Amino acid sequence: EKLSITKEPVSFPSNFLFGTASSCYQFEGAFVSDGKGLNNWDVFTHESGHIADGSNGDIAIDHYNRYQEDINLMEDLGVNSFRFSISWARILPKGMYGDVNMAGIQHYKKLIDALLHKGIQPFVTLAHYDIPQELEDRYGGWLSPKIQSDFSYYADICFKYFGDRVKYWVTINEPNVMAVRGYRLGTFPPVRCSGSFGNCSAGNSEKEPFIAAHNMILSHADAVSIYRTRYQERQGGMIGISLNTQWYEPFSNSSEDNSAAQRARSFVYNWFLDPIIFGRYPEEMQQILGNNLPAFSRNDVKKLNNGLDFIGINHYTAAYIKECLYIACEHGYSWSEGSYFRATEKDGVYIGKPTTMDWLFVYPQGMEKLVMYMKDRFNNTPIIVTENGIAESDNPNSSLEDALNDTQRVEYMHSYLNSLANSMREGADVRGYFAWSLLDNFEWLEGYTKRFGLHYVNFTNLQRTPKLSATRYKELISNFHSQLATYTT
Ligand code: GBH
C-alpha cells in the first residue's frame, strides 16, 4: 500500500510543515550530563513499581549524543520540521533558584543549528511532562501559583537564546494529561490522587487537578505575554499550546448522549482552550464545578487576552461517550470528571480497529471531525497536528525484518492524513502535521515495551533502522512537493 493523499492536495499551503515529533525525556538520555539537574521524571522512574519494564530515561535512545545521526535520518525522510522539547532542568537545573546552565544552552544551540543547516525548522516545546524536581520539592510544582513566574522566567531565557532561529513554540505539551494523571489518577508524577481515584496516599481534594490546570493555563499566558511584548515582533514566530485531543462520538443519538459528548470535549480540551482563547472556563464546567473551579482575576484575564497563534492537537483516537449526569456513573466517573462515561465499544464492537495500546483504536474520521469542531468553536484559529501515530509491541522473538514491516502504521497514517486533508478541503486552516514519532523511544509508563517510531531502535545497541512507514512517509512528502510544484509552475 502507498501512503498518499488520494484526492487533489490543493488545499495544502506550500509552507505546510511535514515533520516528526519527539520529547526530551523520551529521547535524550544523558540524564546527568553537562550540568543537567534532575527532573520529576528522573525521580519518578527511579522509584520502583511505576514503569512496566522497570526502565527509565537515563539513557533513553541517547538522542542527546546522537542528534546529528538522527537529523541525517530526517534529511533522508525529507521532512521540513522537527518537533522536540527542551529539558527545563538542563537550562535551569534548579528553576529560578539557580543559575542558567550554559552547557545546556550550548547543546540546544548546536541541535537547532544542525537542523537549520539541513533546512529543517525547529518546532520547540518548552515543557513536555518533565519539570525540574527542585520545583516539586520547593513548592509542589504545578499545584503552586509560584510555578507561573518560574515557567515564564524559563520561557524568557529560551526565547532570548533560541528565538532568533526558532519560529514555532509550544508552551506546554498536554497539560490536560498532566493534570489528570498527576493530580487525579496518580499515575504520573507527582502521584497525587483525588476523590476516589487511584491508590496513592497523597492528594485528597477533588480540586487539585483544577488547581494544577489553572496554574498551567496562567503559566502559558505569562509565557505568551513575554513573547508578545519582548520578542515576537523582532523574531517573527508563532506560539501555541498542544492538547491531547480524542474525538468523542455520542454513544447514541439521544440528546443526553450528545450533550455528554459535548461535556467530554469541554472537560478534556476546552478546559484549557476556552480560557486561553475566550478568557473563561467552558459553561458546562462552571455549571457542574461551581466554586471548585478556580477563578480568573481581572489581571489574569488581561494576560489571557494574549491567547495563542495556533492550537496544537495531539490526536490518536476516539471514544464513545454516554450520559451519566442523572444516573449513577459506572467506574466511579464523578462530577469532577464531567459525569460522562467513556466507552470504546458498543454492542460488542470496538469503535475502530484495536491496537497494542489499550486506549488507541483506529478511527480516522475522528481527525476530520475534531479539526472541524476546533475550527468552528475557535473561529478558524490555525491548527497544527503536533502528534499522530500508532505503536507496535516490542517482540523480542520477532525478526528485524518483521519489525520493520509496519504495514499497520502505514495504513493508519494513510487514513488519518486523508481525513486531515478532507478537513482542509472544507476550509480548516491546518498548518502542519507531525508523526509521533521519529524513533522508537521511552513510552512513559510502558517503558520500552511499545514502539511508536517510523524508525526501529535496537534498545541494546541503539542502532536505528527505517521501518516501511519511513519510506512511505518520505514518498508522500516528496509526491506532495512535486505535485505542489506542478500547481505553482
Ligand atoms: C502523547 O500522549 C504524548 O505527548 C507522547 O509523549 C506519547 O509518547 C504519545 O502520546 C504516545 O502515547 O483515558 O483511555 O485515553 C498520549 C496521551 C493520554 C494517551 C492518556 C493515553 C490514557 C488513557 N495519553 N491516555 S484514556
TrEMBL record:
<dbReference type="InterPro" id="IPR017853">
    <property type="entry name" value="GH"/>
</dbReference>
<feature type="active site" description="Nucleophile">
    <location>
        <position position="387"/>
    </location>
</feature>
<dbReference type="Pfam" id="PF00232">
    <property type="entry name" value="Glyco_hydro_1"/>
</dbReference>
<dbReference type="InterPro" id="IPR001360">
    <property type="entry name" value="Glyco_hydro_1"/>
</dbReference>
<dbReference type="GO" id="GO:0008422">
    <property type="term" value="F:beta-glucosidase activity"/>
</dbReference>
<keyword id="KW-0378">Hydrolase</keyword>
<dbReference type="InterPro" id="IPR018120">
    <property type="entry name" value="Glyco_hydro_1_AS"/>
</dbReference>
<dbReference type="GO" id="GO:0005975">
    <property type="term" value="P:carbohydrate metabolic process"/>
</dbReference>
<keyword id="KW-0326">Glycosidase</keyword>
<protein>
    <recommendedName>
        <fullName>Beta-glucosidase</fullName>
    </recommendedName>
</protein>
<comment type="similarity">
    <text>Belongs to the glycosyl hydrolase 1 family.</text>
</comment>
